[in-house]
């Protein structure tokens, strides 16, 4: 056998050539990767994920239990290389731990990356949309909802109406259908003056219905995955408007 080694080659950056987006995904999440694939469909913009161990039952205790695993999980994304943006894909845990703590844990894994999470992305989305009075819909149980409401209002937004499915199992949340979401959003709008609707939780499937919901409600509509995908793009310097994905994807963040 003739062995030929050190053959010459050339290189060309194709995957992630415009932007590399890192995403920490809950092990119980069925939805976020699918919706990111729907929302981010651009040549050279690629998403790289790692899954973090979590309990599929969403409680304050199970959410807090992820904290010591966030940095190690994020470190698994493109080991030895950088990402432009690094996101943590859990809204309720980001609220419970606080966005600043999430940023710190992510940057411990990827020091040069810009960081985000669903609630920081939602706030950036509200500001870009000029929205102050937010109708909030979640799947969470009451003790988690109380923390969500307090966190949003403590950051200067009004929440005139707050609705919940009160379902604490993540795999069940992933199966909530569009008709249920539409019906719940219609209930939230009744008798309330709102600037936007926010549907919290990365397990909720909403991205494909945003444009339809906006036409139905005449309000901007966003969700955890919808806002997070948009924020990742904008933080990575991808500024072009994307039509057909809802009003948010035609906006730039307020600096």
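Sequence proposed for the structure above (255 residues):
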């Amino acid at each position: 056998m003739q062995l030929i080694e050190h053959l010459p080659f050339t290189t060309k950056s194709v995957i992630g050539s415009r932007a590399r987006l890192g995403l920490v995904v809950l092990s119980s999440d069925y939805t976020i990767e699918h919706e990111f694939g729907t929302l981010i469909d651009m040549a050279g913009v690629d998403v790289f994920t790692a899954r973090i161990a979590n309990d599929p039952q969403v409680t304050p205790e199970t959410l807090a239990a992820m904290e010591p695993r966030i940095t190690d999980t994020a470190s698994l994304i493109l080991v030895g290389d950088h990402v432009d943006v690094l996101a943590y894909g859990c809204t309720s845990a980001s609220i419970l731990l606080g966005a600043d703590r999430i940023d710190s844990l992510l940057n411990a894994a990827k020091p040069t990356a810009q960081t985000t999470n669903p609630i920081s992305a939602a706030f950036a989305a509200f500001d870009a949309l000029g929205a102050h009075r937010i109708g909030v819909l979640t799947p969470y149980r009451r003790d988690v909802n109380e923390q969500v409401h307090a966190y949003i209002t403590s950051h200067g937004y009004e929440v005139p109406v707050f609705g919940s499915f009160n379902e604490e199992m993540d795999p069940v949340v992933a199966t909530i259908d569009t008709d249920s979401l539409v019906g719940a959003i219609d209930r939230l709008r009744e008798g309330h003056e709102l600037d936007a609707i926010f549907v919290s939780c990365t397990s909720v499937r909403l991205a494909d219905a945003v444009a339809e919901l906006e036409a139905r409600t005449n309000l901007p509509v966003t969700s955890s995955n919808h806002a997070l995908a948009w924020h990742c793009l904008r933080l990575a310097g991808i500024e072009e408007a994307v039509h057909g994905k809802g009003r948010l994807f035609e906006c730039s963040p307020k600096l």
